[in-house]
Every structure is written in structure tokens, then in C-alpha cells.
Write a structure and sequence with these properties.
It is a single chain. It is built from 15 helices and no strands. The chain is mainly alpha-helical and about 375 residues long. It is flat. Helix 7 runs antiparallel to helix 15, helix 9 runs antiparallel to helix 14 and helix 11 runs antiparallel to helix 13. The chain has one domain. The N and C termini lie far apart (about 55 Å). Keywords: Membrane, Transmembrane, Transmembrane helix. InterPro entries: TDE1/TMS. Belongs to the TDE1 family. It is found in: Membrane.
């Protein structure tokens, strides 16, 4: 009964956060320019008013009947899956950008390439080391064959070998070994995290047997780490207009390019048509010794029309989904068997993490194969 009430409390707080950030996301729809009042007054301004609204939304779900919370708990499972997929896309983009940046720098200074190769070796070494530790920790002596754990660890290694080999194949036009090493290490970590989430009374969870019930400080530290990763994911996703833009833009039409074009229009002269210089402008420059200063009002108008640097609506949507994801972590993905003194422990957490591992690997292999399968499309 205590576990049920604990889950209900988590769901209600999570639902309050979801409603707050969801309403903020809806309110930010269509904000494209800095001059929009919603930018100054709602997104960047009035922090105390937003704090009051957040507290109101957090308390509101405690008035809802249990039927509403049951519907939200199932919706949170779907929203958490979407959040995990977005995190995977962010990771793939980050690793690929890292590889491209260092490889480009290596054309001028080969030390960048040596550093990239060193990180690649470290990535594969970390993957093999973690796999060895998992074979030792999750097949303890006297626990039987532990075929499930052994099979999951072996499948992880086979997945790493598969996409590493694919990245070196001629078919993968944009393949590189460093992203494979980084994704391989992440896949090994997901496998470790999944096996560590097995119930503590499971005979093959040797690591779990050596751990006592988590203390309050340990739980607090775990939640802080989780929240930090969620906040980073939200900022990364919300500000990455290249990955998650809702409007789409061609080259030169992004926020920076549009702003520069607007300021260029303001700071430009009134030169005559067809390249004929403006006589009045030339005279004024001769007298003052330089070009005239742009009009302050015109500059302010240009700044107001400058595009926002990221999608505000999507930014708040990420936090709404993150609220669902944290609720799933704290309730063991809705499992009644979740211990109240442990976070993210249970078979539901195990299979969610393993699913995330395979989706990440398949997504990465798709990024390697897609340019060859669809040569007419631009995947840059």
C-alpha cells in the first residue's frame, strides 16, 4: 500500500510539471522573432510569476481522481520513450560533429588525428573492460548458468562488432571508426545499467547482492545526476535548430544569417540603382570622414525582427517529456514491485534500457547506410 501511495505522489508531481511545461510549449508556439512579447515577458522574463505558476501546476494534480493519474501513467510511458529516442539522436549528432570537427582540424595539424585515434582506442578498451566486468559481476559463482545475462552481454559485443565493421565498409560513405567506438562504449554502458537494474534478489545479479539499500545521500546524488543529464539533453535538443527545427531553413536562412542580413540592410547605404553611387552620401562621408552611423531606431527594429536562436516551444516540450521520464525512473516504469528505497530497479527498467541500446545501435547503422541507399538525398 505504501508503494502504491508513493507511486501516486510521484505521478501527481510529474503530471504537474508536465502540465506546466506543456502549457509553456503551447504558449511559445509561433515565436520566431526576438521582438515577440512572449520572448521578453514569458520565456526570458518574470521568473517569480513562472515560479508561482509552477507551484500551482504542481499542486493541482493532487486534486485529480485516481483514474486521471492512471491515464497519465500510461501516457508517461509513451512520452518517456520519445524522450529516450531524442536523447539517442542527440548522442549520435554530438559524436558525429565531434569526429568531423577534429578530422577537419587534423588537415592542418595531425595532432588532432592522433588525439582522435587515441580516443578511439580508449573507447574500445573501455567497452572490452566493461564487458569483462559484466561477465564477472553478473554471473557470480554458484548462481548457475545465468544464460540470460551472458547472452545479453554477448549480444552487446556482437552489436558493437557489427556497426564497427559496417563503419569501415565501402558501403558506409560517411563511416568513421571514432563514432563507432563512442557508440560502442555507450551500448556497453546501457547493458551494464540494464543488468544492474535487475531485482536485488535475482541470483545472477552479483553486483546487486553486494549493495545495501540505498541511503538518502546516494538517492539524492543519483537524482541530481539524472536531473543534470535531463537538463543537458533539454538544452541540447532545444537549441539544436539543425536537428530539431520545426520550420526548416535553407543555407543562409538560419537565425545567424537572417540577423546579419537584417543588420546589413540597416547599416547599408542608400547607394543609387544599378551601382551608381549616391552623391549626397558621398558628400556626407567626405565631410564627416566616414560612413554615417546607423539610426538607433532602425537598429532596434532590426534586432526585434532578428530570429530567436532556438525553438522555444520545442525547448519546453523536451522538459515536459523529461518530467514523464523522471517519473518512470522513480517508479520502475510503473512496476508495483519497485522498491520505495531504490530508483530504477526492476525488470521493466531492464528491458527499457536494453531496448534503448538496440534502437541506438540500429539508428547508428541507419546513418551509415542511408547515404548509400538514397544517393539523391542530402544527409549532411
Amino acid at each position: 500500500m505504501d508503494k502504491w501511495f508513493g507511486q501516486q505522489a510521484v505521478y501527481r508531481v510529474s503530471m504537474g510539471n508536465f502540465l506546466f511545461f506543456g502549457c509553456m510549449s503551447l504558449a511559445m508556439l509561433g515565436v520566431k522573432h526576438r521582438g515577440d512579447k512572449r520572448d521578453a515577458y514569458l520565456h526570458h522574463g518574470h521568473p517569480l510569476a513562472k515560479l508561482g505558476l509552477w507551484l500551482l501546476f504542481t499542486c493541482l494534480p493532487f486534486l485529480f481522481p485516481n483514474e486521471v493519474l492512471n491515464v497519465y501513467s500510461w501516457a508517461a510511458r509513451v512520452g518517456s520513450g520519445v524522450f529516450l529516442i531524442i536523447q539517442m539522436i542527440i548522442l549520435l549528432d554530438f559524436v558525429q560533429c565531434w569526429n568531423d570537427s577534429w578530422a577537419a582540424n587534423g588537415e592542418e595539424d595531425p595532432r588532432w588525428l592522433y588525439a582522435l585515434m587515441g580516443l578511439t582506442v580508449c573507447g574500445y578498451a573501455g567497452t572490452l573492460t566493461l564487458a569483462g566486468l559484466m561477465y564477472a559481476w553478473f554471473k557470480p559463482a554458484g548462481a548457475g548458468s545465468c544464460s540470460l545475462n551472458i547472452g545479453l552481454i554477448t549480444l552487446t559485443l556482437l552489436l558493437v562488432v557489427a556497426f564497427s565493421g559496417l563503419s569501415l565498409a565501402p558501403l558506409a560513405r560517411q563511416g568513421s571508426i571514432f563514432p563507432s567506438a563512442a557508440i560502442g562504449l555507450y551500448a556497453a554502458y546501457l547493458c551494464f545499467s540494464a543488468l544492474q537494474s535487475e531485482p536485488r534478489d535475482y541470483a545472477c545479479n552479483g553486483l546487486g547482492h553486494s549493495l545495501t539499500a540505498a541511503s538518502g545521500g546516494t538517492l539524492a546524488l543519483g537524482m541530481l545526476v539524472t536531473l543534470a543529464s535531463v537538463v543537458y539533453a533539454a538544452f541540447r535538443a532545444g537549441s539544436n535548430t539543425a536537428l530539431f527545427t520545426l520550420d526548416g531553413s535553407e543555407d543562409g536562412e538560419g537565425p545567424g544569417g537572417a540577423r546579419q542580413a537584417l543588420l546589413a540592410d540597416v547599416e547599408g547605404t542608400s547607394a543609387g540603382l544599378d551601382g551608381v553611387p549616391d552623391v549626397a552620401e558621398a558628400t556626407r562621408e567626405a565631410v564627416t570622414g566616414g560612413a554615417p552611423k546607423p539610426d538607433a531606431a532602425a537598429v532596434a527594429r532590426a534586432e526585434a525582427m532578428a530570429p530567436v536562436s532556438y525553438n522555444y516551444s520545442f525547448f519546453h516540450l523536451i522538459f515536459a517529456l523529461a518530467s514523464m521520464y523522471i517519473a518512470m525512473l522513480m517508479t520502475g516504469w510503473g512496476s508495483v514491485a519497485q522498491d520505495k528505497d531504490r530508483i530504477d530497479v526492476g525488470w521493466a527498467s531492464v528491458w527499457v534500457k536494453l531496448g534503448a541500446q538496440w534502437v541506438t545501435g540500429l539508428l547508428y547503422m541507419w546513418t551509415l547506410l542511408a547515404p548509400a541507399l538514397f544517393p539523391d538525398r542530402d544527409f549532411s
